[in-house]
Every structure is written in structure tokens, then in C-alpha cells.
Write a structure and sequence with these properties.
The chain has 253 residues and is mostly helical. It has eleven helices and no strands.
Length: 253
């Protein structure tokens, strides 16, 4: 580990702080979900009669957004495009730091092109979802400040990431990559190196850290909360099996 500049020291602190906030925050939210009393059966009917059927129902929501598809197909389309693009981008960002060959394998450039397309689709789909909250009166009525904040933050992350490919010269982008790999690997091994100093990269990275720290306090937690949703996970068998939760006895009706 060589001498670290002030910028790197600051970002090391904020990186670990964001990771710690995310980890502790998610654990506390899961604990809250798991311990919230559910005194009565409230499955959203028609509901499955078995736990296996309830699991299939949850997986249908997780992977295909089935209820959203039935209720609003334009929102489903843009929401689905966003989620697919977002998770592909996360996957490719992680993949980049597990490829150590030099030069990079021939197929990596294909992933780069796919990542750029995903970035563009992500920003466009987010813009539609933001516009929907502004234009559609019934959606605007139920929208909170945090609903706009998370959409704007995600759009800014996408635009900042795209700018690295469209604004920086190939030489400047290569310089960022050459410094980024050792920095990211050093976060895991604690063999720290200086962070890339390019302003566009630092903006993109700062926004990502802000998102990571904000997730436990935002509606993004629905990616875990859906597995604790009583309307989704409960079976519709109150006549066949008595439902009783001792921890919720004081709330029973």
C-alpha cells in the first residue's frame, strides 16, 4: 500500500460508511418486517391454498411483476425495462472486477456495448416513471417527496455513468479503468490504492455511494419487503387450518 492522497482517504471513509449503513439498515428492516404482528389472515384473493403455491405466487411477482402487468401495462413495461437494465448493469460492474486477464477477453467488449444500451434504457425508463408521477393526477396525488428523489438519483447515476463513455476520451477512460481495478480490489483486501481522480468518475461514484446508504430508508426495500407481504405470502385456507400467532394475541379480533 503506497501513500494515499486526501481524496482517496475521504472516499475510503465514505465507501465503508455507506456499506455499513446499508448492511445495518437492511438487517434492521428485515427484523422489523419479520417481527411485525399479523393477527389475522389477509391474503389477496384469489390466493393459493398451499405454501408452495404462495411461493410460486411471490416468485411470479419478483420475476415478472404479474399484478402490475394486469393493472397497468405501460407502467409494467417501463418498470420492467428499468429493473432488467439495472440488474444487468450491477452484474456487469461486478464482473469487470473479477476479470484479471490482460488484455481483456474478446467477449468483454460485447458486455461493454450491452452495458451502454442498458444504461440508456435505464435512464429512459426512469424518465417515463418520473413523468408519470408528475403528469398522471391520481399518481401525483399519492406521490411523496422521496418517490421523486429516488427516481432523480437513479437517473443521475445513469447519466453520470454514460458520460464516462461519451464525454471522456478513450485514453482518459482507460486511465480511469487502470486505477479503478486496484482501488476496488483494495477495498476487499485492505491493500488500498488511490481512487481515480477524474471528476466525472468521482461524481458517478459519489452518487452510487449515496444510493447505497439511502436504500434502507427508501422504498427500494421492496426487493426484500415483498417476501414479508402478508397479502402475498399467506395461503387462503382459514377454514381448513386455524390461523393463530401468539405474538399477535393482543391484536387479535
Amino acid at each position: 500500500m503506497g501513500s494515499l492522497n486526501l481524496t482517496t482517504a475521504i472516499y475510503l471513509f465514505f465507501t465503508y460508511a455507506a456499506g455499513l449503513i446499508f448492511l445495518i439498515g437492511v438487517i434492521l428492516r428485515i427484523y422489523h418486517y419479520a417481527t411485525t404482528p399479523q393477527p389475522v389472515k389477509i391474503p389477496l384473493t384469489p390466493a393459493p391454498l398451499t405454501k408452495g403455491g404462495a411461493l410460486v405466487r411471490i416468485l411470479g411477482e419478483v420475476f415478472f411483476f404479474k399484478s402490475l402487468f394486469k393493472s397497468n401495462k405501460p407502467t409494467w413495461f417501463f418498470g420492467y425495462i428499468f429493473h432488467i437494465s439495472f440488474f444487468l448493469l450491477i452484474f456487469m460492474h461486478f464482473l469487470r472486477h473479477f476479470i484479471y486477464s490482460n488484455p481483456l477477453p474478446w467477449w468483454y467488449n460485447i458486455f461493454v456495448d450491452i452495458g451502454i444500451v442498458c444504461g440508456i434504457l435505464m435512464v429512459l425508463s426512469l424518465f417515463f416513471l418520473f413523468l408519470r408521477r408528475v403528469v398522471v393526477e391520481r399518481v401525483k396525488f399519492i406521490s411523496l417527496f422521496q418517490d421523486y428523489v429516488i427516481l432523480i438519483l437513479l437517473m443521475l447515476i445513469g447519466l453520470a455513468g454514460l458520460s464516462l463513455n461519451y464525454v471522456l476520451s478513450p485514453a482518459a477512460l482507460t486511465t480511469v479503468d487502470n486505477h479503478l481495478d486496484p482501488y476496488m480490489n483494495g477495498l476487499v483486501s485492505f491493500q488500498f490504492t488511490n481512487i481515480p481522480s477524474n471528476p466525472l468518475f468521482l461524481i458517478h461514484y459519489s452518487l452510487v455511494l449515496l444510493l447505497i446508504a439511502y436504500i434502507p430508508f427508501s422504498k427500494i426495500m421492496h426487493f426484500i419487503g415483498i417476501f414479508f407481504s402478508p397479502t402475498r405470502i399467506m395461503t387462503d385456507n382459514p377454514e381448513e387450518e386455524r390461523y393463530y400467532r401468539p405474538e399477535a394475541k393482543d391484536l387479535s379480533i
